[in-house]
Amino acid sequence: MGSLSYKPLTLANVSKVDLPKLSVLMATYNEENVVGETLDSIGRLDYPSEKLQVIIADDSHDGTVRIVDERASYLGAKGIEMVVSRRGDRTGFKAGALNLASNRIKGDVVLLLDADSRVTSSALNRAFDMLIGGGFSFVSFRVGHYNRELNLVTRAFALFQDTIDGLQKMGSTRLGLPYSLQGGFALVRTEALREAGFWREGVLAEDADLSCRLFASGSRGAYVSEAELVSEDPSTLRIWKRQAARVGQGWAQSLRLDFSVIARSRRLGLSGKIGLLLVLLSPFAGLTWILVTLLSAIAILTGIIDPGASAFGNPLYVALVSIPVVVFYVSGVYALRIRRMLSARNLLLLPVLSYMISAMFTISAISFVSGLAGTKAEFFRTPKRGATGALTQDRQPREGSGVRVAEGGLSLLAAVLSVPMFLRGQYLLGLSLLGFGLVTLKSMELFDGSNSTKG
Question: Model pTM?
């Protein structure tokens, strides 16, 4: 890992003859609402067609197949080499599809996209400048949001993503520490992918797993905030929560499978190893929050501890708890500032976001423990609206009944416990319990008459 400084090089100053061969690799699975626009954005790139290859790893069984074939024919007629890779099942999930398709890569550099990641020439050029001029093995794009203003959930998720990008990715890059790239928003040297062994099949968070092995193999990565690819944000709290559960289980899988890889790496320093492990452990924070909060309330209510002697009443504890809270709010304000979206309306979104995040704690904690235990996983594909405005409706794995019982039970318990906590003057604890309970119940969509992914 090193400094962010890099040579003043731009693609505009490079002869088209000297431009690297670029392979765009994209996995699709029933993405008919969004995949067409993504492929159209590739077709609009200001990049020599003879230097461009587009590989689509398509596991779809809906209208996506027709759209992919039509766009592949259209782009192929423009001189772009098109490859559509298909298989008969979903063995290995997304990673399995990417591995099969990766055998067809001809480029020196690979642009990894999701089915809804829309790329522009300016973003690609800026990422290339960093990759080539800085000598990095891969760079991550800033995640943009084309449906940010759809509703309160998309506004909150967009702010959450902006905050995470700024806090984790930008901060880690500036400190020379590793981070988890997002698989649909990265530009990677092909040799780095080969050295990392491409994708591990069967994991739910293939990008986190790839990140671990890229850094462990000595690759250097950087986050480029000036290079943005837009995508679609989850439009309901329940979809966001299911996505968080997949990340929690996937990161736990990576922690279990990659721990020895990280620990034994001779190319990753001690700070890098610790930083990478802490990133993978982050979903565990939800479980610790639930345990500390509920047990403190129960202990106060039953008289085991005096309210004044509880952790939530201890000034030292309050000070320690305030540190991550302050960091969260400062990072959120900074994210809004660099987005030029600093307004009273958006600032009020920060406390709303904090409660929405708490709704992820139960399912993320359960999923994280399941991942550590090696429980068989099912891949939840985030439904997308695209230009149609309607969510894709194919069969999806549902939360198990045990998860819903745990969520419902803990959220009801928290809401009930908040009342005596307020009466006893434990306002911080009461607010935490009430917000967690009510927002979690809301996210379960108990009264919509179905278990679907309707928006």
Answer: 0.86
